[in-house]
Amino acid sequence: MRSRLPLLLTACFALPTFALGDTLQRSGPAEDCLDLVILGDGYRSTDRADFESDANRLWDQLRTTEPFTRYAGLMNVHTGFRASSIRGPGENNAYGTHFVTLFGTRLRATRMTLLLADAVRAGGEADAVIVLVNTNRRGGTAIGSVCFASSSAPRVGIHELGHVIGRLGDEYSSFSGTPSLTREQLARIYPNLTTASTRAQLPWKDWVAASTPVPGSFFTSGVSAFQGGGAYSSGLYRPRRACRMRTDGPGFCEVCRQHLVMALHEGSRPLQLVFSGSGSARRARLVGPLPDGVWRSRWSGVQAQGLEANVPAGLDAFVDVEDATPWVLGEHRRSLRYRFDLRTGAGALVPGGSGRPARVVGVSTRLRVRARPTTASTILGHLQPGAAVRVLGPAESGFFPIEFDGGTGYVGQNFIRLESPTAGLSSVVGRWAR
Q1: Which CATH class, in words, describes the domain spanning 352-434?
Q2: Most CB atoms closer than 10 Å: which of 38, 135, 250, 398?
């Protein structure tokens, strides 16, 4: 997912001091949750109550919009306040947030360094930041992990958070400007846009009913391929006729909701393994902020009941856990699966099917893949020199966990070359590696 925003030291003595706001939702430690920070711009010191009201209204709107209603337990939400000298958008207010053109809807900030520093001050860590701009004029923009929205339009804020949290693309067909990317580029970047118009080629084909025509028309209901998206009126397709990434009215469509669920998993640590007792009476339990009924578990080598099992110390076994939500389909379900090693007291959480691309290097014949991070462990198979693999987490005892034969295997750390972090390293993996 996204990298953490750095703690930036800023000296701006002419500006009012920053004030910590409220914690609207605290689900756990910052390192275990997706941390959302709400800031304001264009609010004077006398307008602070207005900002707090607008921030609460945005959070109320977000937590009543799926999938955030069901997965709110994976989030922390904080606010922070820095007063502006003027009310409303303008280059001279706290973060310099202003409309780019006279009649357009795009917002831009001129003091991003200060904004990012305040986000970290407010949340300790910040995975996603939204800046509410004190204006009745409709507008919004998303840039990386930061987005902006008019305070008077919380639904625009939800749309912008769809960009920041779910990495979703705009589904509307036009706006006040010229698209900066081609249709093909947009389709490669955003999971809810495609240039494909046949059922077999759709990236979201698992959501398309057999009786639904592809491409869809004005009279088509359900998920299909509807023309128009990414500011193009033709040649680019979206999953549904209406979605929060296109209009204010409905919530997120099935495809956008799916990728938001995956992002919430990526940005948090939804489960931990805890132990009680010792020796033959040691007991293991999976705990987390989501209700127990969310999870499906499969324990290897032990008798279990739900998310609990008796696990004698030293037992070489594991438990696989999966979020049972019907909101994620097909191969994407791999990102909702986790494995815990029952021998370790802390419990090592590894996401199945996620991770970072890598290649086998430094071997002349083949590389052994083992069941555990030790040379005494069972050999599951072999990899050829130069083979592409996916590393699922940080090294353990000199071994990287990798995706292998539908499960997890371990290979020597010195024989793996990690690809560029931007090639697919989940932020969760990065977080566990610290």
Answers
A1: mainly beta
A2: 38
